Structures are given as structure tokens and as C-alpha cells.
Amino acid sequence: MNLEIITTPSGAELTSIKYNSKEFLHQGDKVLDKEGKVYWKRHAPILFPIVGSLKNNTTIINGKKYEMSQHGFARDMKFDIVNISEREHTYVLKYNEETLKMYPFKFELYISYLIDNNKLTIKYKVKNLDKKEMFFGIGGHPAFIIDLKNNKYRVEFENLEENIRFYQLDAGLVSYKNNYVNESLLSNKKCIEIRKDTFSHDAIIMSGLNSKKLRLIENNKDKLEFDFSGFKYLALWSKRNAPFVCIEPWLTTADYTDSNQVFEAKKDNIRLEVGEEFECDYSITFK
Q1: Which of 51, 90, 183, 197 has its CA 20 to 30 A from that of 102?
Q2: What is the mean pLDDT of the chain?
Q3: Whether pLDDT at 234 is above 80
């Protein structure tokens, strides 16, 4: 089998993706800068039950205040193994005393990694086990190895993007201003060049995309194809001079700067009725 993955119960996170023996996934705390500091300790965290930051890291649910750090708690919790085989890795996180202190809903969150030749599908499933309607956000955050010192990279969409909307972050919250990110990022209405300063003002967040797929291109050769069908938002992110780029499919975003912090009113939050399930997935085809 040419595509091999390694995952861990810690955050149900991918820690390695090798295609034809070549590593594609950022190796976290093993990758250091010139000063010996870690660029970013993670590989491909799961964002749940929020994407991005809450205003003041606080939200109000059923009239009570709860604190939650950026991107939610799932990425920092130990999942239980459901199945590990050559072509499938599946994990589950079930609500517990710790999660209920941050998020007062009873749930099960399943993460599956499914291999089909050179294609990896990442599937999320959320079950509402509570006796009330639950609300949540969800998204992916995989980081792919790049080498800006020796190579040129771009993200190229499958279709022309006539109506794309860019969002700007202000201290981690979505701003109504647009001083830093705009259509000038998009060459020929189709490509975003990845340079050392591309992410000087944090992530590039987009919606209104006509495309459902993109390609990460290295020196004019395809590195991978990314299918984000069904996701409202797409984000690109890295740190300055870092040897990786994150391609992030999101269904929700951070709070807006004028958020009233009421979780039920949070823009784009997914509503799940008692006993219902929600599923979504994205896929990566390696070249």
C-alpha cells in the first residue's frame, strides 16, 4: 500500500501521512527553527466544538458562562479507539465530567481516517446524546510540509473565483474591517501564492468559493488535491518562515468582534436535535 498513516488517541490526531514513503504531514514538535524553538507543536488537530476563538474565551449557554480556549477542547483530549486497521482508523470522544464543565452537552464525536489507494478521507460524526438540542462548530486543520527556501508553492482552485469573500482576524476574532486581506491575494482569480509573508496578518479565511477542490502545487507540480465539498469556509495558515502550510475546511468561524457571546446565537453554529447525528468529511488525494 503506497499511502500509510499514523494516528494517536491524543486528540485522535494524524501524526504522519506517507505516500510512496514520502512524509507529507508537518511533524510538530520535532521541527525546530534556527533558535531551536518549535514552530507549531501540532500536526492536524480536530476543531470541536468551536472553530477559532470565542470572545474573551467565554460563551453563554442556557444563561450560564463557560470558558473554552481557541478551537475547542477535542484536540487536547484522549479519544477511545473504535477500530485500527490498515485502511481505517476510527476514534470516539464521549462527553465526560471535564467536557461538561466547558460545554454542557452530552455528545459522541467520531473521527475516521479512511484510505482508498492514494486518497485519504477524514470523516467527522457527531451524535446528540442529550435531552436537549445541542449546538457546535467543527473543522479540520491539517498541516502539510513545504520548503519555501528551495521551492515555490501555490494553492490553485479548480474554478475561477468571482465571488470569493475574505475575512480578517482582529486579535483572533472575525473583524468587519478588511485592511489586510482582499482580492489582490488571488492571482488570475484562481491562485494564492504561498510566500514567507503570506500569513503576516494571521490566517487567510474565505467563503463564497465556487470551487469544491484545490491543488497544492510545488514548483508547478501537483503535491496534493484537497476536496472540501460541503464546508462553508476554507482557511489557509502558517507561521512566518515555517516549513508547513495548513489547509483548513471549516463549517463555522471564530466569534465576530461584536459577538454577544450567546452560543445559541453564534453565526453558522450547527444545530442538532435530540437523538440526531451529523456527518461531514473532506479528502486529500496525494500525487
Answers
A1: 90
A2: 96
A3: yes
Are 141 and 200 spatial neighbours (Cβ–Cβ below 8 Å)?
A: no
Three-state SS letters, 148-209? CCCCCEEEEECCCCCCCEEEEEECCEEECCCCCCCHHHEECCCEEEECCCCCCCCCEEEECC
**3-286 fold:** Beta-galactosidase; Chain A, domain 5 (2.70.98)
Instruction: Report d(CA 49, CA 72) in Å as an integer.
Output: 5
Closest C-alpha among 76, 88, 9 to residue 48: 76
70 CB-contact burial (10 Å; exposed 0-12 / middle 13-18 / buried 19+) = middle
Cβ atoms 82, 90 nearer than 8 A: yes
Tell which residue, 235, 232, 236, has the closest CA to residue 268.
232
The full set of domain ranges for the chain reads 3-286
Phi, psi angles (nearest 5°) of residue 27 = -100, 30
In 6-121, alpha helices (H): 97-102
Which amino acid is it at 53? S
Question: What distance in Å separates the CA atoms of residue 108 and residue 96, rounded to the nearest whole number?
Answer: 10
Calpha distance 213→228 (Å, rounded)? 6
pLDDT tens digit string along 30-65? 999 999 999 999 999 999 999 999 999 999 999 999
Determine the Cα–Cα distance for residues 150 and 253; give it in Å rounded to an integer.
Answer: 33
Mean of the pLDDT values across residues 130-154?
97
Give the model confidence (pLDDT) of 170-206 as tens digits: 999 999 887 766 667 898 999 999 998 899 889 999 9
Residue 90 in contact with residue 96, Cβ under 8 Å?
no
